[in-house]
Design brief:
By secondary structure, the chain is an all-alpha fold. The chain has a domain at about 405-655. Helix content is about 70%, strand content about 0%. It contains 28 helices and no strands. It starts with a helix and ends with a helix. InterPro entries: MAU2. This is Cohesin loading factor. Its main location: nucleus.
Length: about 650
């Protein structure tokens, strides 16, 4: 039906990748879509159009306007008129399809609340259930219930979502899809618990185990793949080496199955909307996941499946993360990450096998760029961990790629690239540039003063200002002038009265809070105590200050000390590299109880013993000693204190070592 319409759309979708990559203008795409829409409006304007045809045209138009033009109001009008027409001619199935399109568009609409969407969904669920009981056709009921479950999951209403899953139990004719729904329920519940800060790893892994038990040939490979992904993310946090090895093997096995079973179990979208969230996500509050990677800033309930090529790249990224962050196998991690990076570049340079809408193409392109940034960031860390401070190729590429990200992801990556740039300049002896990058982090609008990245940047400022070249910067006048110079560069070198007033204000703000005759080093060191003293949730901050104390007297030796600092940060979830892990895993800070801290510390001590890391053992040991002292367990305190003193001597020797 409507061959000319589909021809125009096929032509538009054929150029979408070139539009996204800048090889074609967006006007051509819009013109082709507009022609398809115009064809449908022409059919509507013809006299004597059969009602069945008119309803189909309105349904197709509403879908196009929602997906291509983002014209919710017009789409709603078309659906409303089509629904009235369908009812009057007893086209009940079409009426249900139109209502589904209407509420689906409402769920996408930025101006509609979740409560409003659910109210309408409840009405349609009741109507479709009555229809199912009369005609024994539960297709519409299944679709509405599934959409409702999707909305509930996205609203983090887990109990109601699982009640919706239970209500689908009577649909015997949907037995195959029921397995899909149950698998989805277990997987999504596990993910949501993780997102919401649950510390009950056993409960989360139990949900994933129940999902795995359902994995037969009828379960789409995408769902199996995402279950494995979520399991890996949780195991990374638990530092469970053996389980991670098994999960990593399973990850690549799924990808191998995808290549072998393309005919029997194709990697395509199912006919129902399965709300599996893309892996790389950002935005919103720290520690939350949001699915949106396109221009639609809304509570998306229809998910764009990641392609097989994206899944393959993601597998290499995760394997690199595991080997770098958990297992300490830097060379293997670098090899895996380099393979993933090569696949990303090949994917960006060649058009996708399947034509896609502009929105889908942008989401695909964004995901590739985001994975490219994560990969480059981990490769940069691997070089720095190996004290290869002259190898800045990955850092330069990361800085360039970050500029090509969507705004919400750029806000997340830019401060991280600032930190790595500051560390690079600090280690290579360019203290002027190092200070500028650390100051950039401190004033970035997306970096809160209580965040780990802000604090670690301040720590590095102190290290620079107390180092061998500190005398060059040991007054606030120099810092202030550097601020003025950098902001002039950011503003295109503006001059005149306005620039003068701005620079005076910058100087005043820079000096604000400093005591007379106080050095920048002392000022920043004193400033560090503020977020720590203000009921800061993260023990990582305490550890960072302990590390600063350890190197305070001797002053930093650039290469090895910075390498240890970065390695230290890799191990801590809430510091600069931890921000990446938080983005990957959806794991946020949140308020931690004493039990949470103790569990974390004991896990860290055991981890350190296995890795023979004195630094990691000392930091966790200090935390555990303080917690045991609070609990009044003095016998354990004495034993722990003795061990911590031994570890601290080893740490100080490592930090002061010069090769």
């Amino acid at each position: 039906m409507f061959p000319l319409v589909f021809e125009y759309l096929a032509s538009a979708h054929g150029v979408s990748w070139d539009v996204v990559c800048g090889r074609q203008t967006v006007e051509i795409y819009r013109m082709l879509v507009a022609c398809a829409i115009a064809c449908l409006y022409t059919i509507l304007s013809e006299p004597g159009v059969h009602p069945f045809i008119e309803i189909q045209v309105r349904l197709k138009l509403a879908t196009l306007l929602s997906e291509e033009s983002v014209n919710w109001q017009e789409a709603t009008k078309l659906v409303s008129r089509g629904t009235t027409l369908a009812k009057s001619y007893n086209y009940y199935t079409l009426a249900m399809q139109l209502k589904y399109a209407s509420v689906k568009a409402m769920a996408f609409s930025p101006g509609t609340s979740t409560k409003t969407t659910l109210t309408m969904l409840d009405a349609y669920v009741a109507e479709s259930q009555a229809l199912a009981e009369q005609s024994e056709d539960a297709t519409a009921y299944f679709s509405f219930m599934f959409l409702k479950i999707s909305v509930l999951f996205n609203a983090n209403t887990l109990q109601e979502a699982n009640e919706g899953i239970r209500q689908l139990g009577f649909l015997q004719e949907f037995k195959g899809k029921q397995d899909n729904v149950a698998h989805l329920a277990f997987t999504m519940h596990a993910l949501k618990l993780f997102q919401l800060g649950s510390n009950n790893a056993d409960e989360i892994l139990n949900f994933l185990a129940q999902a795995k038990a359902l994995e037969t040939k009828q379960i789409p490979l995408q769902m199996v793949y995402m279950r494995v992904i979520y399991e890996i993310l949780i195991l990374v946090e638990l530092c469970d080496y053996k389980a991670l090895d098994r999960a990593q093997d399973e990850l690549f096995d799924v990808l191998q199955r995808q290549q072998e079973e393309q005919g029997n179990n194709p990697w395509v979208e199912d006919t129902i909307d399965i709300p599996l969230e893309p892996f790389i996500v950002a935005g919103g509050k720290p520690g939350t996941l949001q699915m949106e990677t396109s221009t639609l800033q809304s509570k998306t309930v229809v998910v764009s499946w990641i392609s097989p090529s994206e899944a393959n790249i993601l597998a290499y990224l995760l394997a690199g993360l595991i080997n770098l962050r958990i297992r300490g196998k830097a060379k293997l991690a670098a090899h895996l990450l380099q393979q993933g990076l090569a696949k990303i570049k090949a994917e960006l340079e060649s058009p996708p096998e399947l034509a896609m809408s502009l929105r889908t193409a942008r989401a695909h392109h964004d995901r590739l760029r985001i994975m490219q940034c994560y990969t480059l960031l981990l490769l940069t860390l691997e070089r720095f961990l190996a004290s290869q401070w002259t190898d800045d190729a990955y850092l330069k590429e990361l800085l360039h790629t970050t500029r090509q990200l969507p705004a919400n992801f750029a806000d997340m990556f830019t401060p991280l690239t600032y930190y790595l740039s500051g560390a690079y300049f600090q280690a290579s002896g360019n203290m002027h540039n190092a200070i500028q990058f650390y100051l950039k982090i401190r004033e970035h609008p997306c970096v809160a003063p209580t965040s780990g990245l802000y604090i670690i940047a301040t720590i590095n400022l102190v290290l620079v200002l107390e180092g061998s070249q500190a005398q060059k910067y040991n007054n606030f006048e120099v810092i202030s002038k550097m601020e003025e110079q950098r902001r002039d560069e950011d503003d295109g070198g503006s001059t005149g009265a306005e620039a003068g007033r701005r620079n005076s204000m910058i100087k005043e703000q820079t000096l604000k809070g400093a005591k007379s005759n106080e050095t920048p080093s002392a000022y920043y060191r004193r400033e560090l105590l503020r977020p720590v003293c203000a009921t800061h949730a993260s023990p990582m901050v305490q550890w960072a200050l302990q590390l600063l104390d350890a190197v305070y007297d001797s002053g930093p030796r650039d290469h090895n000390k910075l390498a240890v600092l970065v390695q230290f940060a890799v191990r801590l979830d809430n510091l600069q590299v931890g921000a990446v892990v938080a983005g990957v895993a959806g794991h946020g800070g949140g308020d931690m109880t004493v039990q949470d801290r103790e569990r974390l510390a004991r896990r860290g001590v055991a981890d350190a013993e296995q890795e023979q890391s004195a630094l990691w053992g000392w930091m966790n040991g200090v935390l555990l000693e303080n917690l045991e002292r609070e609990a009044g367990n003095m016998e354990a305190v004495q034993s722990r204190h003795k061990r911590n003193k031994q570890l601290k001597k080893t740490v100080e020797a490592q930090l002061n070592r010069v090769d």
